[in-house]
């Protein structure tokens, strides 16, 4: 098993100094998983909708009066998971654990179809996948306590205001559709854009 260490030189290029210290410890199964989780954590901390170690009751209080589709990401209180998405659904607030294997994150919203769910190497990519794409788009359903509701991640519940620099990065990533456009930028700018290139709307 691999555990987190600030002395891990292989992680020196990641934002370890900015990492939120979780209130429980989950072991990593490999260095690859460690890198993936830390990389996603860095992006989550930039997002403005990552709430760290709040619990389910606190998440429920934050979301209960919000419109359906409002969501946030927090640390999971279960030591078997790293993160949880808390979302306001038609059934009320539901907490969806984000599962992880050696090289991807995923959610099993339907226990009968757990073997065919999409996998992502970043939590922001996972979130983007479950955001509505328009009329006619495929809908994912949550099965909870014998009831069913569509899973729609529509609006992040922000708790911080992002810097102007970060907001500009998000907008540029949205507007740049062709890789050739990005290739014309200085390498340092390309890297900065890439560091947060899967942001929700």
TrEMBL record:
<dbReference type="GO" id="GO:0046854">
    <property type="term" value="P:phosphatidylinositol phosphate biosynthetic process"/>
</dbReference>
<dbReference type="GO" id="GO:0009968">
    <property type="term" value="P:negative regulation of signal transduction"/>
</dbReference>
<comment type="pathway">
    <text>Protein modification; protein ubiquitination.</text>
</comment>
<dbReference type="GO" id="GO:0046935">
    <property type="term" value="F:1-phosphatidylinositol-3-kinase regulator activity"/>
</dbReference>
<keyword id="KW-0341">Growth regulation</keyword>
<protein>
    <submittedName>
        <fullName>Suppressor of cytokine signaling 3a</fullName>
    </submittedName>
</protein>
<dbReference type="GO" id="GO:0016567">
    <property type="term" value="P:protein ubiquitination"/>
</dbReference>
<dbReference type="InterPro" id="IPR001496">
    <property type="entry name" value="SOCS_box"/>
</dbReference>
<dbReference type="GO" id="GO:0070365">
    <property type="term" value="P:hepatocyte differentiation"/>
</dbReference>
<dbReference type="InterPro" id="IPR036036">
    <property type="entry name" value="SOCS_box-like_dom_sf"/>
</dbReference>
<dbReference type="GO" id="GO:0097421">
    <property type="term" value="P:liver regeneration"/>
</dbReference>
<dbReference type="GO" id="GO:0060042">
    <property type="term" value="P:retina morphogenesis in camera-type eye"/>
</dbReference>
<feature type="domain" description="SOCS box">
    <location>
        <begin position="163"/>
        <end position="199"/>
    </location>
</feature>
<dbReference type="GO" id="GO:0048681">
    <property type="term" value="P:negative regulation of axon regeneration"/>
</dbReference>
<dbReference type="InterPro" id="IPR000980">
    <property type="entry name" value="SH2"/>
</dbReference>
<dbReference type="GO" id="GO:0035677">
    <property type="term" value="P:posterior lateral line neuromast hair cell development"/>
</dbReference>
<dbReference type="Pfam" id="PF00017">
    <property type="entry name" value="SH2"/>
</dbReference>
<dbReference type="InterPro" id="IPR036860">
    <property type="entry name" value="SH2_dom_sf"/>
</dbReference>
<keyword id="KW-0833">Ubl conjugation pathway</keyword>
<dbReference type="GO" id="GO:0008283">
    <property type="term" value="P:cell population proliferation"/>
</dbReference>
<feature type="domain" description="SH2">
    <location>
        <begin position="49"/>
        <end position="157"/>
    </location>
</feature>
<keyword id="KW-0727">SH2 domain</keyword>
<keyword id="KW-0734">Signal transduction inhibitor</keyword>
<dbReference type="GO" id="GO:0035556">
    <property type="term" value="P:intracellular signal transduction"/>
</dbReference>
<dbReference type="GO" id="GO:0005942">
    <property type="term" value="C:phosphatidylinositol 3-kinase complex"/>
</dbReference>
